[in-house]
């Protein structure tokens, strides 16, 4: 059975927000190589910025030059790359005590024709908008979200919890980390949103969806999302990448 030939376009915006003194988010993408990544760093001083930037750079480097693309499945290649990214950040922190404990969330989309692998560590998210249906692809690695999934906390309690910022998995804080990986097939008309929690803490899923369904260039849609998050409080750095699947 033949599959539709697709190609990808993308746009991104990052913003410091209204309350933070610096921006510890980082993003990068290569439409040519089908790699898109958002990271949200953590750590004292400038360590969070170092961790997120290093994670983005290494993810792009490792997944943009895939000489093994014909022999190794996309999801496997992505997992191997993230293991190397984790090791690079962990080793950097081990060599410099000022960077001890630094880490970052990571959400990435890797595309090869209509095959898509989405992977995440932490609470940065990927959503998909398909034929009017908006859904979260990834699952947050956060204390409150895991309690919600276990039925030990309601969604309303999670939104009010003082532990909302506690994540249970991060890149670079331990020698080993395991990403969640979701294998999908892209269809013409799909749009994927990769974002840091500075967006999702301020805007509900229905609010994000309402902004995304308005037609317009991807750059304008990214700007609308960031502006809305800032108007809602802007308590954290805000980053989003929109990836559009075109026929």
Short key terms for the protein model shown above:
32% helix; five-stranded antiparallel beta sheet; Phosphatase 2c, domain 1; 10 strands; alpha+beta; 247 residues
Oligomer state of the chains in this structure = single chain
Structural class: alpha+beta
Shape: globular
Q: How many domains, as an integer?
A: 1
| Distance between the amino and carboxyl termini | 17 Å
CATH architecture: 4-Layer Sandwich
CATH superfamily: PPM-type phosphatase domain
What does this entry look like structurally?
The chain is α+β, with helices and mostly antiparallel strands. The chain has one domain: Phosphatase 2c, domain 1 (4-Layer Sandwich). The protein is 32% helix and 28% strand. It has seven helices and ten strands. The protein has helices at residues 47-64, 74-95, 143-149, 155-160, 197-200, 205-212, 218-231, and strands spanning 7-15, 25-30, 35-42, 103-112, 115-121, 125-130, 133-136, 180-185, 191-195, 238-246. A five-stranded antiparallel sheet has the order 1-10-9-6-7. β2 and β3 form a beta hairpin. α1 (47-64) packs antiparallel against α2. The longest helix is centred in the middle third of the chain and has 22 residues, at 74-95. The radius of gyration is 17 Å and the shape is globular. The model has no long low-confidence stretch (mean pLDDT 93).
């Amino acid at each position: 059975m033949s599959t539709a030939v697709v190609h990808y376009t993308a746009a991104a915006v990052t913003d410091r927000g209204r309350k933070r003194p610096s921006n510890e988010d980082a993003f990068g993408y290569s439409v040519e190589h089908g790699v898109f990544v958002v990271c949200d760093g953590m750590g004292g001083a400038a360590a969070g910025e170092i961790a997120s930037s290093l994670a983005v750079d290494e993810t792009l480097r490792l997944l943009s030059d895939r000489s093994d693309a014909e022999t190794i499945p996309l999801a496997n290649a992505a997992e191997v790359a993230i293991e190397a990214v984790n090791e690079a950040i962990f080793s950097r922190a081990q060599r410099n005590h000022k960077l001890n404990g630094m880490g970052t969330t990571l959400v990435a989309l890797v595309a090869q024709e209509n095959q898509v692998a989405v992977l995440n560590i932490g609470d940065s998210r990927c959503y998909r908008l398909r034929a009017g249906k908006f859904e979260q692809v990834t699952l947050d690695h956060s204390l409150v979200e895991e309690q919600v999934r276990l039925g030990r906390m309601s969604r309303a309690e999670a939104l009010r919890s003082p532990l909302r910022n506690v994540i249970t998995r991060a890149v670079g804080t331990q020698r080993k980390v395991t990403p969640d990986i979701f294998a999908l097939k892209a269809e013409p008309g799909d749009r994927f949103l990769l974002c840091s929690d500075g967006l999702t803490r301020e805007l509900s899923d229905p609010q994000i969806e309402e902004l995304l369904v308005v037609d317009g260039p991807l750059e304008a849609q990214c700007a609308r999302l960031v502006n809305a998050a800032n108007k809602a409080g802007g308590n954290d750095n805000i980053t989003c990448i929109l990836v559009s699947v075109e026929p």
